[in-house]
Amino acid sequence: MTITSDKPELSTLAQQYAEDGFVLVKGLLSKEEAAYYRQRSHDLLAQLNRHDDPTWQSAMGLSDGATRLQHLHDAQFYDAEFSKLLVDPRFTDVAAAVMGVDNVQLHHTKLFVKPPENGSPFPLHQDYPFFPHTYHRVGAVIFHFDDAPVEKGCVRVIPGSHKDGPREHNPEGSFHLTEPAFEVATPQPAEAGDVLFFTYLTVHGSGVNVSDEARTTWLIQYRDPSDPPTVKTHDHSLGQGMMLRGVDPTGRSAV
Q1: Rounded to two decimals, what is the model's pTM?
Q2: pLDDT score, position 220
Q3: Mind listing the pLDDT tens digit for each residue in 113-149?
Q4: Would strands 186-187 and 204-206 be described as parallel, antiparallel, or unpaired?
Q5: Which of 6, 111, 132, 203 could be disulfide-bonded to 72 (CB atoms 3.0-4.6 Å)?
Q6: Comparing C-alpha atoms, which of 106, 195, 107 is closest to residue 145?
Q7: Prior bond to 228 cis, omega within 30?
Q8: Looking at the domain assignment, is residue 182 inside a domain?
Q9: How many domains, the chain?
């Protein structure tokens, strides 16, 4: 479901999130803010001059040719403006509401740029197998720093798929799902400033960017600090355990 962010009712967001496993909040950032972060994202990637490509091997079947993807873990450790966004109440209040908790803890972040004409897709998957937790109070948020129509490879979701719990994933090719078919997923086109929230059990993916413009997003994975991980993963992620809202009642911090 799509909800406009002119002080949206948090209870409405939480109800829709519980039903669908996701909610797209329109205009959480202004167009000017989104453009500002888009520029900083591209400047940061150019400055660091990273050449590693995180394209999944299993993504090959979703395009007619080779695709590319730019990314950066932990942008907040390179640019303080991203640190500010991590603790912005416009984001953290929604994150807490949809999880039904008071406290929100960082797991990790990733900056993604899908280059024009051949930006890499992501096959359908859950985030669960990458960093499983005990009670599944783990969520993701995608900040759109520029427009993401279908032709740019916007996110696609299977509404209500989170209700079935963890699914069996193919251990090869980055834990993608072999079913349902990618075409079954519902596109979630977004505009600059829109923010998509979803659970780590929601089946999702994204298409190839075949447009003539880049698609720029920032992914934040967060959790309830009272939900312990069953496997310790993403140890390389700087700042894991940082409190984005409230307090950590466990004293566990970065685990």
Answers
A1: 0.89
A2: 97
A3: 988 867 677 789 898 988 999 999 999 999 999 999 9
A4: unpaired
A5: 111
A6: 195
A7: no
A8: yes
A9: 1
* CA angle (118, 151, 67) in 5-degree steps: 15
Helices (H) and strands (E) in the chain, counts: 4, 12
Q: Is residue 41 part of a domain?
A: yes
> CA–CA separation, 103 vs 223, rounded Å?
8
**Mean pLDDT (whole number) for 191-211:** 94
- Distances in Å between the Cα of 130 and the Cα atoms of 93, 108, 112, 115, 201 are 25, 12, 18, 25, 11
Question: Looking at the domain assignment, is residue 251 inside a domain?
Answer: no
Helix segments in 5-88, DSSP class H? 10-20, 31-48, 80-86
Does 188 fall in a domain?
A: yes
End-to-end alpha carbon distance in the chain: 33
181 lies in which domain range?
2-245
205: CATH: 2.60.120.620
